[in-house]
Amino acid sequence: MNKHVVIIGGGVGGLFTGALLARNGCRVTVLEKNRIIGGGLQCFMRRGELYETGMHILGGFQEGGCLNKICRYLGIMDLLNIRPTDDDAIDAITYWEGGPTTYRIPRGRQRFVSYLSGLFPEEAIGLRRYVDTLYRIADEIDLFNLRRPVEGFVDHGPEFLMPADQLIAQYVTDFRLRDLLAYMNPMYGGVAGHTPAYIHAMINVLYIEGSSLFGGGGQHLADALAEVIRDRGGEVLTSDAVVHIATADRQVQKVITCSGREYVGDIYVSDIHPTTLLRLADEGAFPRAYRMRLEEIPNTYSAFVLYLKFRPGTVPYVNHPCYYQERYGLVWQHAENYEAPDWPLGFMYLTPPDKKQGPYASRMTVNCLMSFDEVRQWTDTTVTHRGPEYEAWKEWNVQRIMAKLERLLPGISDCVEYRFAASPLTIRDYYGSKEGTLYGYRQDCENMALSQLHIATKLRNLLLTGQNIYLHGICGVPLTAIVTAEAILGPGVLLEQINPTHHEHGKV
Question: Could you check whether the bond before residue 274 is cis, i.e. omega within 30 degrees of 0?
Answer without folding.
Answer: no
